[in-house]
Amino acid sequence: MGETLEVRGLDVDAPDGAALLRGVRLTLDPGEERSVVGRSGLGKSTLLRTLAGLHVAPGGAVRLGGRSFGDEGPARWRRRIAYAHQAVPLGPDSVGHTLARPFAYASSRERFVEARAREGLRALGLDDEALWERDAGSLSVGEQQRVHVLRALLVAEDVALLDEPDAALDVETVALLDSYLTERRRTGLSVLRISHRPAPEARTLDLEAFRAPGRSRPMDGA
Amino acid sequence: MPGSVPGLDALDVGLAATLVLLAGALSVAMGLGLFRSLLVAAARSAVQLTLIGLVLRWIFARTEIAFTGAAMLFMIAVASRASLKRAGWSLDGAAPGAFGTLAVTAGATAIAASALLIQADPWHRAQVMIPILGMLLGNALTGISLSLDSLLGAFAEEKERVEAELALGASRWEAARAPLRRAVRRGLTPIINAMTVAGLVSLPGMMTGQILAGAEPLDAVRYQLLILFLIAGVTAVGCVLLGAFAMTRLIDDELRIRSDRIRARGEG
To answer: Cβ of A170: how many Cβ atoms within 10 Å?
Structure first.
């Protein structure tokens, strides 16, 4: 599985309508991982939200294997290109139900495979036996973030959009996340993540290049 | 048969009003600063209730269905406005939903109760229909606005929770299942409490009125139960209907959350 994500001339506006980015270009092949970089306020999260269709783009084209958001319909689109917010409080529901829930949605084409979910928890350094029945809302912030990111990685058919998936994780856990992402990418899943860590230039998408004209540099402005 | 109690004249009410003055005197003595508010509130209650009494007398004297119908529509319109205003958040475009919800729940239930259960003669008799509708609206309103408040609060304050589900391909109803369930639960709490303590803490208002008017207590009980059960049904269906309507405004057809349609009400 996995098809190429093509972004052409995409414009991104802030929720209040202010222009953030203009003409964003990106090609993300199956199995590829890119880090979105750029200063705070530039529009990194808004770009990911726009790609997921959670936010309206004033212009440009986004295609996944040649098909658009409109072609697929919102729910199917988001199965193919799933987005995980940076920090979402989970619960009240067990970790197991939280992971299984999206597979009960009408847009799902796959059945929930418990073994795969448990394997994912273990890969991210979580004790699946101890956590499975526990209320996800009672976990620590770092544990919740891993469950939340894992959910998107299990659901995503083509692309996973991860908003700072490592924000609440320590160095060792970040390494576990990276190796789990590598493993998932071998199956053809591509990953676009927001990151503050340095990465090779070929693997980054620097939004500074697409900053909307006339917009003050985020550090100078508000 | 117990006889009805004698009527009151203006002097009786005037004597009772001296108690308001007593409350006002206490306010002055304790420096509560409520003297004016008390007098204004008492005067308002006198003027408003007298006016409503005159209007009701006028409507009850008419047998035409159009008068009753117009009065019912007016009551539903006022109640739907109030149900929206009581929630801590306002939702653009909610007015038709609130009106429709109360019309098909409270309105239809009042008609059915009057025509089929109470078997008023004629079936649309204003003296039956209007008080029943008034009680249904007044009580269901509390639950429905609590429920709406809970739902809008979930979208205003925990938007990411709902959006996280949408982001993984949830439909509108799949994403909103949890907040909608919570909202309906919250809306049903007051009527469940009211039924639980009915008769223990105080006698419900309608029953008290009927007993004072000379009704046999068990007859009054039957009327009161009828009303409580109707309120429970109207509240439950009302919370679900208005919640469902609100969902279509809160999550649009592209399955995006429309926070721009919610606004917090200013304090006061």
So the answer is: 10
